[in-house]
Amino acid sequence: MTGLAVTTISRALNNAPELAQDTRDRVQKIAAEIGYLPDRAALRLKTGRTNVIALILEPDEQIYGFGTNLVTGITEALRDTSYHLVITPLFRNVQPIVPIQHIVRNRMADGVIFSKAETFDERIRFLIDNDFPFVSHGRSQWPEPHPYADFDNEAYAYGATLRLAAKGCRKVSIILPDSALTYTDHLKKGIERAAQESGIAYEFAADVNLGSATDAIRNYVIKRSKRPDHPDGYVCASEVSALAVIGGLTDAGLDVGRTAHVVTKQSTSMFAQFQPGAETVHEDFVGAGRNLGALLLRRISGETDNLHFMQSPVFDWKD
Fold it and tell me: pTM of the full predicted structure?
């Protein structure tokens, strides 16, 4: 139909930059008109590639649109490529490495993306050892560099704590993520440094973490707020935990924004609809998704250097 060679057709369908744009446009237009799609099984046999990117998500990562925002960003990065995004669920009571091993051993994708990186994450170790392309949302402390996109949680916690000190807080606290996660240490370091510099006290909430039920977090804050020397400032690492903290402070008789203060990360506009009196710092999960996708494409193409991105917090206090 085009009068072009099969090799040229193949390159045009893969949007090869060395071909003239009008040739690519003509081939892709005809392919779209006749409904042509490559046979993915044949493609895998021919090239060893699946043209699939696997994103591993836990069910709770859909809370407040975390997973949806990541998917939006990743698909933007994959637009105009031959790659398709496939979401692989990580079910409860399944070890996080299990879906990774399944994907790698069965060559079900050309690369994989996952979140909640741990300090010495066995998923990262396994993927490095198998030379399988991946990028993580979050960092590890393995000696080998690896691709990642992350938010500077230490800088966020540092800036948030300084803000609470400036608002007159005597003591700050935080509901931390699971202790195995790398960004838990980043948050702790930021709070410790800012509290020491500003001369205020700090503590890390006991008995609950970000994985706890919101009722458990709320009840913890209520009980802690009724004891002597209770925190009057909270740094929150998620919107969900912030709502629980604010609820607990309110139930304990404190007035958020006046007798107690809260700073939280915010990734959606939904949080603002509650008008909870907290101050917020934006974390862009759509942008994180775009960077995760772009970094993985570079890794699949053979690049190994400088495959990381760090989003810095922007503090835009109202006064």
Answer: 0.86
